[in-house]
Amino acid sequence: MKDKGYRVKEYHCRVKRYCQTMNLKNNPDLIAMYRRCHSQAKAWPEIREGIRSVGILEMEIYIEGAKLFMIVETPLDFDWKTAMDKLSHLPRQAEWENYVSRFQECVAESTSAEKWKLMERMFYLYE
User: Fold this and answer.
1) Does domain 15-118 have CATH number 3.30.70.100?
2) Which of 54, 93, 113, 116 lies 20 to 30 Å from 102 when distance is taken between CA atoms?
3) For residue 118, what are the β-bridge partners?
4) What's the rounded Cα separation, in Å, for the pair 28 and 31?
5) 22: Cα within 13 Å, side-chain hemisphere
6) What pLDDT shows up at residue 17?
7) Predicted confidence (pLDDT) per residue in 91-107, tens digit
8) pTM attached to this predicted model
């Protein structure tokens, strides 16, 4: 995919970007299963719908070995804590978090907001 480029969404407004990280269990079979359950064919539609319903415009997850990096784009008025609380109470979200926790370095009962660690931007190519 990286050789062909990535589709980038364009918005008609300014957006906020959140970057997060998480580790998977360092097991090639589990990592392969984690990749599969996030594929377009296997990802649960209720989870994608829930992500959009809390105001998230776009979400991407990148992987290197057992390390995950997520980029989340939202409108400027998006409140992270409120949205993550709402997300955690949506139908099937707890079931999804429990399902994917077997691949992740986390406590099984953790919410998405508890598993993923928000990162601070420390550099960009200044204009």
Assistant:
1) yes
2) 54
3) 20
4) 5
5) 24
6) 95
7) 999 999 999 999 999 98
8) 0.89
